[in-house]
Specification:
This protein is mostly helical. The protein has helices at 2-11, 37-40, 47-57, 67-80, 93-106, 112-121, 128-141; strands at residues 16-18, 28-30, 89-90, 124-125. Strands 1-2 form a two-stranded parallel sheet. A two-stranded parallel ribbon has the order 3-4.
Length: 142
Amino acid sequence: MADELRALAAVASEALLFGGVEEIPGIHRVPADAGLRRTLGGTLTSLNVRMAASWLQHCQDGQLASKATSDSWTKWAASESKPEQHNRKAMTDDDVIAFIRQRTASQPGVSRTRLLRQLRDEGQACEQSRFANLYIRTMGER
């Protein structure tokens, strides 16, 4: 996308990029900040979209990339950004499957997302896609 972004910068009077890996002259880049995930909610995968929505709330003078807006955002983000540290215990596939079976038996209809949140809230670790695969495999066995 770098070529497309450079082309945009050549014609746009005001352009913003949330995330990205490099600065592009002519585009105001707002680096991704994982420390805002808890404040903005959701997953890291969609954090840049929520950052963009929050940026609009900090728009001070009707100008998306003005110094006033940037300053407002920077001040807010600095006060809200809290690096997350997870000291969760790794689980084997068998442990995750046992967790899924136990919880779905005691909470019929509970969503996969809610189960993963419960597992993590209890200090256990399991990557989202791995949990999804184990959930599908487990629930397909029933």
